[in-house]
Each structure stands twice: as C-alpha cells, then as structure tokens.
Amino acid sequence: MYTKFATEPLKGGTVEDLQEFLDSFVPRQQAADEALHNGDAEPRKQLWSREDPVTVLGAFGVAASGWGEVNKTFDWVAAQFSKCESFQLEVIAAGVSGDLAYTVGYEHSRVSRDGGPARSNRLRVTHVYRREGAQWKIVHRHGDGLESERPG
Fold first, then answer.
1. What is the structure's pLDDT at 16?
2. Which pLDDT score, from 0 to 100, does residue 12 have?
3. pLDDT score of 8
4. Which long-range contacts (CB under 8 A, 24 or more apart) does 126-133 make?
5. β-strands 55-57, 135-146: how paired?
6. Mean pLDDT of successive 10-residue stretches along the chain, which has 152 residues
7. Rounded-to-integer distance, Cα 60 and Cα 117, Å
C-alpha cells in the first residue's frame, strides 16, 4: 500500500481531482513497480505513455528519452531485480492541474539485485503524468539513491 502525506491541488486543479488521481492511479503504480522489483517490467510499461516526450533519469545512472529507449531501460532494470521482499511508494507531495500531475516521494524496497542477497534500498523519486484520453500515463521519472535508513 502506498502512503501519502501533504498534498495540495495545483492552480486550476481541485481537491477531488487530486484525490481521484491518488486513489486510482498511484496504487496501480505501486503494484507495477513491485512487479518490476520481481523481474517483470510489463506492468510498469502499461502505465507509461507511448507518446513523446517520455523520459527517465534513473537511479542506476540511466538517461532515456523516447519510448524506444524507455522501453529497453525498463527491461534492463527488471533484469537486475528478483525476490522482492517488500516495496512501498511513499508520496510526500502531489498535484493535479488539468491534464498534468506530479508526485514526489520515496520508494522503499528490500530486493535482490543481480542474484545477490536481498538488501534494503531507498530512492528519492519524482514522476510526471499526462492524461491521455480518459487515462493517466507516466511521462517522466527521476530517481536517485539514498541511504536505506534515515539518519537518527
């Protein structure tokens, strides 16, 4: 289950739009990213736009632009992971205005990388979303690694 904190509607957005986005899309995103951490990129790919611009600035130092590069990046990332013991998307800020939305937060996971022992990870992540027809799609992701535990 994802957790959420302070969120405010953006100028031109409503509290209802924001809550609908958080309640309907973000749990699907969490499930897709948990699948990615178990080696399956397909659920994540289904949530992403095929229409440019789409971009990824990944925690592994990957920079991808355009669906072809983004698609290959997700396959590569999924191949790095297996045996996900836990995954949580912690949304600390979000907004919706018209056909654009964003989330900012942390991803907490305990997962095996490259077949090694499971290890705790924490990423700082930002996502940008675009409404295409009646569906939200992710169009940008930026992630960077942090220590797995917060300083005391």
1. 87
2. 65
3. 59
4. 126/102, 127/29, 127/102, 127/103, 128/100, 128/101, 128/102, 129/21, 129/25, 129/100, 129/101, 129/102, 129/103, 130/49, 130/51, 130/99, 130/100, 130/101, 131/98, 131/99, 131/100, 131/101, 132/49, 132/51
5. parallel
6. 54 80 95 97 98 94 96 96 95 92 96 93 97 96 74 44
7. 18
CATH number for the region 3-146 comes to 3.10.450.50
Q: Where are the domains of the chain?
A: 3-146
Contact of 21 with 96, CB cutoff 8 Å: yes
For 4, the 3-state DSSP assignment is strand
Can you name the residues that pair with 105 across neighbouring β-strands?
91, 125
User: What span, in angstroms and rounded, lies between the C-alpha atoms of 74 and 120?
Assistant: 20
> Which residues, 6 or more positions from 21, have their beta carbon under 8 angstroms from its beta carbon?
94, 96, 101, 129, 136
Residue 60 is predicted with a pLDDT of 82
Confidence (pLDDT) at 9 = 60
Pairing of strands 3-4, 81-97: parallel
Residue 81 CA, chain-centre distance (Å), reads: 16
